[in-house]
Design a protein that fits this description.
Distance between the termini: 65 Å
Number of strands: 6
Strand content: 5-15%
Order of helices and strands: HHHEEEHEHEHEH
Number of domains: 2
Number of helices: 7
CATH class of the largest domain: Alpha Beta
CATH architecture of the largest domain: 3-Layer(aba) Sandwich
Shape: globular
Helix content: 40-55%
Structural class: alpha/beta
Largest sheet: 4 strands, parallel
Length: 200
């Protein structure tokens, strides 16, 4: 079987290290980069370098941002009595796109996953507890993903938060998506939808 030239093989190897990129996708990306003009390759390199050099973690909520405090934490109009806890900055931005939540956020930087070597000490829990110690916080919304790791993380944080008096700890509801059909939903989703039913 023919081997790739060494520079392309190295490029394929590096693309293959990215999450969600399999061998075929890595090959397509590598050959696409090779076919790009020198100017376009330089722009790509500059964008990668700038993203590493110009991004920081918000001093308050720990999201990835280009200035600290971030656009949420620096907004005096936000509701400073609520903190929504999410796994990463992408989750925070997804919630912001709704334009209906006006509280603050806290980005954990992952979820508890012993299989991947991620325990509580690898998450930004110390920073969260420090923020919860502020008496102004009245509600913490746990918005971690509906996965085994996300559920374990939410349960762990809920236990940690029990000693904060006057703090309501809530969990986002899980269930059927709008426009979804019951027949296509998995058993766990249906069970959650029934468990978290509410009066109308």
């Amino acid at each position: 079987m023919a081997e790739f030239p060494a520079p392309i093989a190295k490029l394929i190897e590096e693309f293959g290290r990215l999450p969600g990129i399999g061998p075929k996708s890595a090959q397509r990306l590598a050959f696409h980069v090779v076919s790009m003009s020198d100017d376009d390759v330089k722009k790509l390199i500059e964008a990668l370098l700038h993203s590493k050099r110009d991004l920081v973690f918000c001093e308050s909520c720990c999201c990835v941002t280009d200035h600290s405090p971030c656009f949420v934490c620096g907004d005096a109009e936000r509701d400073h009595t609520m903190i929504c806890v999410v796994q990463d900055t992408r989750d925070m931005l997804a919630l912001e796109r709704m334009k209906s939540y006006r509280g603050l956020y806290h980005v954990l930087g992952g979820a508890i996953s012993p299989m991947d070597g991620i325990g509580p000490d690898e998450l930004r829990l110390t920073e969260l507890l420090h923020r919860l110690a502020d008496d102004a916080i009245k509600e913490m919304i746990l918005a971690t993903n509906s996965t085994v790791e996300g559920e374990a993380t939410a349960s762990y944080i809920a236990r940690l938060a029990h000693h904060f008096e006057n703090l309501a700890v809530t969990r986002i509801a899980h269930g059927l998506p709008i426009g979804g059909d019951l027949e296509y939903a998995d058993e766990a989703t249906l069970a959650r939808a029934l468990e978290f039913r509410r009066p109308i």
